[in-house]
Design a protein that fits this description.
By secondary structure, this protein is α/β, with parallel strands linked by helices. The protein contains 15 helices and nine strands. It starts with 13 loop residues before the first helix and ends with a helix.
């Protein structure tokens, strides 16, 4: 049936109408848009009609959107004229609304606005009939033009007075744990919605394993993790998750299949590993894949990209550093659009191969790609570290807390086990020791050189 032939939202169902009312309450700009074209009677249910009337009345009286706390007060004090059933339905709806987010927000907005605008235009056309008989063409044109203007997107930005309450709302980051207490303490619980985390390490230092660890921790917390791999096969990545979760060494996985399945089958989280050949996928490719998952009603809680440097940029003819900067900007945009944390990794340049501490100066090709990240930590593992399952983590950037800190780590690559240990040395101490070692190495080389020259 054509929207214009339908006089209310009943064809869309109750969940649609409840979500629509929640969006009217939560978004000032959308509420402004709907207030121009919404007839309250379009809503099929009385309790939703009353709820939206209260929102619009508050907006008209105080010239701003009601906050959640204010709306709670209104629902406790201004429903005396309604019957008990309506009051209960409104309060139950408000409680449910406070606990859940609207899915398919753009679709609901588009359909609702389209429906209302068609009703407004239909009414204008009907009013034009008697004007047509009088040949009042100017009045007809004005009537139709005014109807066409109503309900257009009027989001002109954040309004200082009208959007006053938004400045005092508690913004939920909903962080996902890293599984390392010391890093969770630094980041206020982990990486949150819309944030980008980056692991920096040279080749062979454990970037991919660190990303698996982060994904496994989220998985054990009941989260849905989408892991994109552009270097390893999907089954190898999944096997690393097996080892990380169960503690079974990678080399023993094949022979302990039943044991692994019995341990992972009851995990409440969901893991999807998607493989793309190196440099074949762009961020747009990942975005399209995520949209397909959402169409299957799969809600994404964390995205892992192993790793960002291996994605293909939309900038074809620019320098490599500009391409990499663009990729990391798009990855952060991906986090914001999907309202979830995104973790990726970056390769260091040659200076990071045997460094005691890896700073952002060692990032390969594009230093500017660090500007958009919210949290960056590096992993440094010298030959001595690898032989003793040790290493260091350096907190290079942290928007939610302190940075410039160094922590020792335990890393056993045989079963993807990584622990970040309490701090035992400062950055300056490590730098001094590194300089001292370099001086000792040079002295030894000089002695050997003098000794060799003396024997000739």
């Amino acid at each position: 049936m054509n929207y214009a032939e339908q006089e209310d939202f009943s064809q869309f169902g109750k969940p649609f109408q409840e979500n629509l009312c929640q969006l009217i309450f939560s978004s000032r700009t959308f509420a402004d848009q709907m207030q121009e074209v919404l007839d309250i009677n379009f809503l099929e249910f009385k309790y939703l009609q009353v709820f939206v009337k209260l929102v619009f009345h508050y907006k008209e009286k105080y010239a701003r959107q009601p906050s959640e706390s204010i709306m709670g007060t209104i629902l406790r004090t201004e429903l005396a004229n309604e019957n008990e059933l309506i009051i209960k339905q409104i309060r139950d709806f408000f409680a449910r609304m406070s606990r859940t987010d609207v899915q398919d927000e753009e679709y609901i907005k588009d359909v609702a606005v389209d429906f209302c605008k068609k009703q407004v235009l239909k009414e204008a056309i009907l009013k034009s009939v008697p004007l047509l008989k009088k040949s009042s063409f100017d009045d007809i044109q004005k009537l139709i033009n005014n109807a066409m203007k109503l309900g257009n997107d009027n989001d002109d930005g954040y309004r200082y007075i009208e959007d006053f309450e938004r400045r005092f709302e508690l913004k939920s980051r909903d962080p996902v744990t890293t599984g390392w207490k010391v890093l969770d303490d630094l980041t206020k619980g982990g990486i949150g919605n819309g944030e980008l985390g980056v692991v920096i390490a040279p080749t062979g230092a454990g970037k991919s394993m660190a990303l698996v660890h982060l994904g496994a921790q989220a998985l054990k917390e009941g989260k849905t993790v989408i892991h994109y791999t552009l270097e390893l096969s999907d089954t190898i990545v999944a096997s690393r998750y097996d080892s990380c979760i169960t503690g079974i060494p990678l080399r023993e996985l094949f022979n302990r299949k039943e044991e692994i399945y019995n341990e992972i089958k009851d995990i409440s989280g969901k893991l999807i590993v998607k493989e793309y050949p190196t440099k074949s996928a762009k961020v747009d490719t990942l975005r399209n894949h995520l949209e397909k998952l959402q169409q299957q009603e799969i809600s994404v809680d964390m995205i892992i990209v192993d790793y960002g440097d291996l994605l293909r940029s939309n900038l074809k003819n620019d320098e490599k550093r500009h391409q990499l900067e663009s990729i990391y900007e798009e990855l952060r945009s991906l986090a914001q659009i999907n309202s979830c944390p995104v973790w990726t990794a970056s390769q260091t340049n040659r200076s990071g191969l045997n460094a005691e501490v890896i700073t952002m100066e060692a990032i390969s090709e594009a230093f500017n790609k660090c500007f958009v990240a919210d949290f960056i930590f590096s992993i440094s593992r010298t030959v001595q570290h690898k032989n003793s399952n040790g290493g260091r983590v350096f907190i290079a950037k942290n928007r939610n807390g302190p940075d410039g800190l160094i922590y020792p780590i335990f890393m056993d690559t045989s079963n993807v086990k990584i622990d970040v240990l309490p701090q035992i040395e400062t950055f300056d101490e490590v730098r001094k020791n590194e300089v001292k070692k370099q001086e000792q190495t040079l002295q030894e080389k000089y002695k050997n050189y003098r000794k060799k020259r003396g024997n000739q």
